[in-house]
Amino acid sequence: MTERTYTTPAGVIHYWVTQPAQPKGVQLIFLPGLTADHRLFEKQIAYFKNKYTTLVWDAPGHAASYPFDLSFDLFDEATWLQQILLHEGMTAPIIIGQSKGGYVGQVYAELFPEELKGLVLIDSPSLQRQYYTAIELWLLTKLTPIYKLCPWKYLLQAGAKGVAVTEYGQQLMRDMMMVYTGNQKRYAELAGHGYSILARAVQKNLPYKLTCPHMLLCGTEDRAGSCLRYIKAYQKTTAEPVYWIADAGHNSNTDQPDTVNTLIDTFLTQTLRAS
Predict the structure, then answer these.
(1) Quick check: is 18 in a domain?
(2) CB proximity list for 142: less than 8 A, separation 6 or greater
(3) Within a domain: residue 196?
(4) Structure confidence by residue, pLDDT tens digits, 53-97
(5) Residue 14 pLDDT
């Protein structure tokens, strides 16, 4: 992968690009979840890099994309992503977002519906207001002090086991969290900020209606907050299919990468065939 940077008014975003000799007609844009980094998609990049142009970033404030002024929201992130894609000449993006990365993808779809060729949401509920209670949205804005007070050893253990059920998935999350070892304040503020901007995006009460081809995946063992409940409610309300990944937690793409890669590959083939 080739590492590149993009400078925003709030900080520098680091991202990585792969380019096969004869890429297919769309670009795969991988967006990791909160406190994870580009390594979250290492199994997906390895699988797709010989067929598709890929791009994966360390989201603003995360890992290499630091220091960063945490005054931005999901709409800023989506706008910066669009600027990066234009800079790279990527005009047919399919976003593959896990958790918070999927929220950025949904906002991108809201802002740039004509540009987006497809969206894969991995353990990433809808941003539509109807799925969230007022108390949940309020609590999402109050988490920074909790992350500051919890012992780091506990956060490291809970963070890994809370998002994955396999040894590989848990170890990868621990490795990504180790970026913040020795600077719990940075981790706490980053996590708290991520939940806060999620709440703010939901409270905007925008349509967040997906008009491009899209697919929703969710681990059957997802225990991250109320993610499972939100996605089940979305499935019931919309009657849209959800691809349930057995023996997988919130980071289902790391717990069951072969299953997730096959589903994404099929989705890409169908999307390209229909275009």
Answers:
(1) yes
(2) none
(3) no
(4) 999 999 999 999 999 999 999 999 999 999 999 999 999 999 999
(5) 98
**What pLDDT is stored for residue 274 in this prediction?**
84
How does strand 2-8 pair with strand 11-18?
antiparallel
Q: How many CB atoms lie within 10 A of CB 88?
A: 18
Domain encompassing residue 225: 2-127+208-274
Helices and strands: H and E segment counts in the chain: 11, 8
- CB neighbours of 223 closer than 8 A, spacing ≥ 6? 162, 249, 250
Domain membership flag for residue 200 = no
Alpha-carbon distance of 88 to 197, in angstroms, equals: 27
Taking the alpha carbons of 84, 64, 18, 47 in that order, is the dihedral positive or negative? negative
How far is it, in rounded angstroms, from Cα 214 to Cα 234?
A: 14
Instruction: Report pLDDT for 233.
Output: 97
In a domain, 51, yes or no: yes
